[in-house]
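Researcher: I'd like a structural prediction for the single chain below. Treat it as a standalone chain; there are no partners to consider.
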Amino acid sequence: MFKFFKRMKTVVASELNAMLDKAEDPVKMLDQFMRDMGEDIKDAEKRVAKQIANEKILAKKLENTKAMVEKRQQQAEQAVDAGNDDLARRALADKKEYENQVTLLTESYEKAKADSEVLKNKLSEMKREYQQMRLKKDSLKARAESAKTRTKINRTMSSIGGDDSRLGFERMEEKVLQYEAEAETTEDLSIQSRTLDDEFAELNSEVDDELAALKRKMGKE
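Model: Treating it as a single chain, here is the predicted structure.
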């Protein structure tokens, strides 16, 4: 039983470090370690409960044996009162056997009680360590997630300001300038290609529009 708790201390002190050294994802390994440690604590609780049950059994046996010592004493006194010395001797002899059992049971009970106290204290210590490690795990998990996020953002920012991105924007800018130049050129060509008739047609159209507006205003439509 003591070896069990000693093993747990060893796990907490060294095995976690070894697991993390080999881990690709420390957060997942920490979660797995906490699950394993939780299972070990459950197993320890069962062992402690079994030890306490053994202590209670010994306590009950000791109580019953002490009661038999008292009973045989009373029976011996009763036999003496009745003048039956032989029966008194037998009662006292049996009382002696029970007294020997009381001595042995007392030693066993005291040892079991002491062991139970030690194991309960060790179990409490394990639970405290588990709680502390859970808090540390949560802190480490948060730090790991934060570091991953910062790394991802930094890589994204680096790629945005990189040569490939810059060259891509420069190419797009050149393409837009080319489109604008082509549009201006086509407009210039369109103006240059207009004939004298086109210009007079446009002028007449403007005069006709102005005349129609004037008639509407004077109610002469």
